Design the sequence.
């Protein structure tokens, strides 16, 4: 199993996201036109490369909206296409072209317009499509019931291989009938819930009594981070959070705010108040429910 990690700034704190690529194959549906892909997906985010919000991170990656692009031939660049539109360019190293795109956690649908010919587009779930000069469509999309952790565009023939040119990367979740997407609680690389004290942005362990005098009731609020759903303030009434202690006792954590994470459009945050009953609980498992659909559970510590 291959793995790599990315760092995101969330509320001023670095969160490490670990991506693992398994060699095992999981069949995904391949779609060759954008309209069909859009109809089979939901919560889609699209990067069109027209804006200037594309930042080299100093480690060889280009980052935009929390999505990371890694090119074997150097940091990808933004170039002008034939129609004046902006394209992502991943330059060849002569004998091989390889662009790998690390997708947000919970991605189960991804598609892009890919303009180089020939070029092989594949996913971490094992699906692969060869874009050849006779293709009638520049678009390729993948829809899976398992997470798609990365999209890879590569070629090792002919020599020299062409550079990869890509436009309009879209990613989100597959649409299963009329069911809304399932929330996924973001966890750290050690498997613990990614959670921050809402005022100080300190990480666990947390205390029910706030370590600062800024809350009127003296109680601590913590922020949990969720992917797979796009939450707005109006969604507050549809979100609940529960914690379970080592004795399987359940505790409701009052939800006080729901919103999107600033500068990371695919991630949402849920702010909850720690109830008095959790004082000294130690490790508890928390889970988030959105419109009746329950997330994974992950531990955090409350002293």
Sequence:
């Amino acid at each position: 199993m291959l793995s790599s990690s990315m760092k995101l700034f969330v509320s001023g704190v670095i969160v490490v996201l670990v991506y693992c690529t398994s060699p095992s194959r999981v069949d995904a549906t391949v779609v060759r036109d954008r309209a069909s892909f859009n109809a089979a997906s939901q919560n889609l985010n699209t990067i069109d490369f027209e804006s200037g919000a594309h930042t080299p991170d100093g480690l060889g990656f280009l980052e935009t909206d929390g999505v990371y692009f890694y090119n074997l031939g150097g940091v990808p660049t933004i170039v002008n296409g034939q129609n004046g539109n902006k394209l992502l360019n991943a330059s060849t190293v002569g004998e091989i072209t390889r662009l790998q795109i690390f997708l947000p956690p919970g991605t189960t649908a991804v598609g892009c317009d890919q303009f180089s010919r020939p070029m092989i587009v594949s996913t971490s779930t094992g699906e692969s499509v060869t874009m050849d000069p006779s293709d009638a469509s520049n678009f390729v999309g993948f829809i899976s019931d398992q997470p798609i952790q990365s999209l890879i565009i590569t070629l090792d023939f002919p020599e020299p291989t062409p550079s990869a040119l890509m436009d309009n990367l879209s990613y989100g979740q597959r649409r299963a009938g009329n069911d809304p997407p399932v929330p996924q609680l973001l966890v750290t690389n050690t498997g613990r819930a990614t959670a921050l004290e809402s005022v100080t942005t300190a990480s666990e362990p947390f205390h029910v009594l706030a370590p600062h005098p800024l809350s009127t009731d003296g109680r601590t609020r913590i922020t949990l981070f969720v992917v797979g759903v796009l939450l707005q303030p109006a969604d507050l009434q549809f979100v609940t959070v529960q914690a379970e202690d080592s004795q399987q006792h359940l505790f409701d954590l009052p939800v006080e705010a729901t919103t999107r994470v600033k500068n990371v459009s695919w991630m949402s945050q849920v702010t909850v108040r720690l109830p008095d009953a959790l004082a000294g609980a130690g490790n508890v498992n928390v889970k988030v429910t959105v419109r009746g659909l329950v997330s994974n559970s992950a531990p955090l510590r409350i002293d």
Q: What stands out?
A: The chain has one helix and 26 strands. The CA atoms of residues 119 and 131 lie 5 Å apart. The domain at 184-302 is CATH 2.60.40 (Immunoglobulin-like). The first strand starts at residue 2 and ends at 10.
